[in-house]
Design goal:
single chain; Na+/H+ antiporter like fold; 15 helices
């Protein structure tokens, strides 16, 4: 295979390539003795890039948004009801089987994967799959608003000592929404109004947001592997915390697509329910639940991007998704 052909193949499988690169770089700097000092110095700085990269990729994506799509859809609220019911079902299972600490840990991991709000970067992948940027932007805002209500409602049931208030959850999620969603959206709309030439130039680089997301994903993969390797959970519990998020991920993508198909928007709805903001999920777990359960949302981010990578490969090969 020629160098050009190899580069083209890597570009077509960007998400998978990013995950492999992130994993390999982490393993090198974590286990090769001569590289370990550099890894220890540089590694803690890499996560600081993530919010910057997310801000940029959303800004560039929103420069292509259709204003007419910025309105709620019926499926937005159906998906929120489904997410709430799935999270509530896990609360019920925890109340029934939570006496066993190991099973409770696994169930808490699944619970956080269900209750996580939608990732702001969902628009980047959905656009490449044929979904609606505008519709998913509004959905993500709604998802975070719903999360403000259900987190203070459910968390004290899961962990009796969870000291979380509606105000505390609201402030945390509002900060997240404004920083990584509302501000880049507002700047993009202002740019379209007052800097049309700049926006036109930016829009000629349609893959720019995707490449920034690949850089972010490589960093997230490395950080996730580090957190998993440093986890004090071991044995079958660790394996369940790694494997059950795969089934949670597939279930949410499948339900989302099934709901969206009814309104002719299976791609957007599938991504809306399946692609999660696991950074928020990990923070919530470490702060209010059993910190050991944070392995689950960490594993979820790997599974969801394997699903996304496969969907992108399928669309590239066959021209469109058939579900």
């Amino acid at each position: 295979m020629s160098t050009v052909g190899l580069f083209d193949k890597i570009k077509k499988n960007g998400l998978i390539t990013a995950m492999v690169v992130g994993a390999c770089v982490y393993e090198l700097f974590a286990h090769v003795e001569c590289l370990m000092p550099l890894g220890e110095k540089v590694g803690p700085w890499l996560p600081d890039w993530l919010p910057v990269g997310l801000f940029l990729l959303l800004y560039f994506t929103f420069c292509r948004i259709k204003i007419s799509e910025l309105k709620p859809q019926a499926w937005h609220f159906v998906i929120q009801a489904v997410r709430t019911l799935l999270a509530a079902s896990m609360v019920g299972l925890i109340l029934l089987f939570g006496a066993d600490e190991e099973w409770k840990l696994v169930l808490e991991g699944m619970f956080i994967c269900f209750i996580c709000p939608t990732a702001a970067a969902v628009v980047v992948i959905a656009e490449r799959l044929g979904g609606s940027i505008g519709s998913l932007t509004i959905f993500t805002i709604i998802a975070n608003m719903v999360t403000m209500v259900i987190i203070p409602l459910f968390f004290p049931m899961v962990e009796k000592g969870a000291d979380i208030t509606f105000l505390g959850a609201s402030l945390m999620l509002l900060r997240n929404v404004f920083t990584v969603l509302v501000i880049p959206l507002a700047l993009a709309l202002l740019s379209r109004r007052y800097l049309p030439r700049f926006v036109k130039k930016v829009n000629t680089y349609r893959n720019l947001s995707f490449y920034i997301w690949c850089v972010n994903l490589a960093i997230v993969t490395g950080v996730t592997l580090r957190n998993i390797s440093q986890s004090t959970v071991s044995g079958w519990v660790l394996w369940l915390l790694l494997i059950t998020p795969l089934f949670v991920c597939l279930l949410q993508f499948a339900i989302g697509k099934a709901v969206g198909r009814h309104w002719g928007d299976s791609i957007s709805a599938g991504q809306a329910l399946g692609q999660k903001n696991t950074v928020v999920g990990i923070w919530l777990t470490l702060t209010f639940l059993n910190p050991l359960a944070a392995v689950a949302p960490g594993a979820y981010v790997l599974w969801q991007n394997l699903v996304n990578g496969w969907q992108l490969w399928y669309k590239e090969k066959y021209g469109s998704l058939r579900w």
